Amino acid sequence: MRIVVMVKQVPDTTEVRIDPKTGTLIREGVASVMNPDDRLGLETALSLKDAAGGEVIAVSMGPPQAVDVLSEAYAMGADRGVLLTDINFAGADTWATSYTLGKVVERLAAEEPVDLVICGRQAIDGDTAQIGPQLAEHLGWPQVTYVGQVRSEGDQLRAWRRLPDGDQEVLCPLPAVVTVLDTPGEPRWPRVERLLEACRPRAPLESWNAADIGAPADKTGLRGSLTQVVETFSPKTKRETRWLEGTPAEQAAALVADLREKKVL
Ligand SMILES: Cc1cc2nc3c(=O)[nH]c(=O)nc-3n(C[C@H](O)[C@H](O)[C@H](O)COP(=O)(O)OP(=O)(O)OC[C@H]3O[C@@H](n4cnc5c(N)ncnc54)[C@H](O)[C@@H]3O)c2cc1C
Fold first, then answer.
1. CA–CA separation, 133 and 31 (whole Å)
2. Which of 77, 90, 96, 134 is most buried by its number of CB atoms within 10 A?
């Protein structure tokens, strides 16, 4: 199977802070890591390769330093990494991001057919969970979301979706896009010797720009974005303490009346 895995570099925190002046994420002092769901996506791809052979290609769109997540993917066992980096990609919303990732898949598929694209369910910074489904739309491929386990069956994929009320088993034709949130086992550890190999000039880690994937400037980055962020801010919380007087029954009645007035009940 030829599998493309999308991996995003994210800040190593779920408590994203926003600069009140610029409205952008505060990245200073926060280390960057591979998005946790993408580690699961890589494990899923590598397990499929272990079972049936093939090739695993990790793809990341981001600034030049995002090559670190591709080195890590290579150290985990990916065969190749492609970093998409271009000033034209800056300011992309999810639509422009998924368009750009779709163009990479199209270029890779033109080299040799791609059977499967794996995304994490969501990134811990953007948190929209939109990229996988949008990417499937751009490619015109079927999609299976919330996947916890997969098995390759010829030109089909059997997937088990983890839904709130139980698992759902799905048989899907290939090529397809899946988004994963779990794996049967722990993701494998990166191997030190491959991490060292990834730093060598001849490592199979490439860097592509907009021209390499034939992506016009008006379809990528801020220009290609369908949404515009008007303002970004941390919600202000207000605390108010009121002491209730009287017997416990009177206090309970006053509390219920107050909550009803505030439309909490
Ligand atoms: C108007 C607007 C402007 C923005 N400007 C910027 C900006 O200037 N700089 C900035 O950093 N962000 C910016 N963003 C955020 C950016 O759009 C999102 O980070 C990006 O689209 C991915 O969305 P997400 O994080 O919600 O991913 P999700 O949909 O939650 O991610 C799901 C999965 O998709 C894959 N994936 C997501 N992003 C990538 C990626 N880049 N490379 C590889 N795989 C990926 C991963 O497998 C991930 O697990 C902007 C957003 C908006 C709406």
1. 28
2. 96
**Mean pLDDT of all residues in the chain?**
93
pTM of the full predicted structure? Answer: 0.88
Asked if 187 contacts 118 with a C-beta cutoff of 8 angstroms, the reply is: no
Domains present along the chain, CATH in parentheses: 2-219 (3.40.50.620)
> How far is 167 from 105, CA to CA, in rounded Å?
29
Q: Whose CA is nearest to atom 52 of ligand 1?
A: 93
Q: Which atom of ligand 1 is nearest to the CA of 94?
A: 21
Is the pLDDT at 115 greater than 90? The verdict is yes
Residue nearest to atom 36 of ligand 1 (CA): 8
Q: Which of 154, 207, 152 is nearest to 178 (CA)?
A: 152
Q: Taking the CB of residue 55, how many other CB atoms lie within 10 A of it?
A: 17
Residue 94 CA, ligand 1 centroid: distance in Å? 6
CB of 38 sitting under 6 A from ligand 1: yes
What is residue 45's three-state secondary structure? Answer: helix
pLDDT in tens, 169-194: 999 999 999 999 999 999 999 999 99
Decide: 228 in ligand 1 pocket, CB within 6 A: yes
pLDDT at 34: 97
From 44, 94, 179, give the residue whose CB has the most ligand 1 atoms within 8 Å, as the site to mutate.
Answer: 94
How many CA within 13 A on the CB side of residue 57? 24
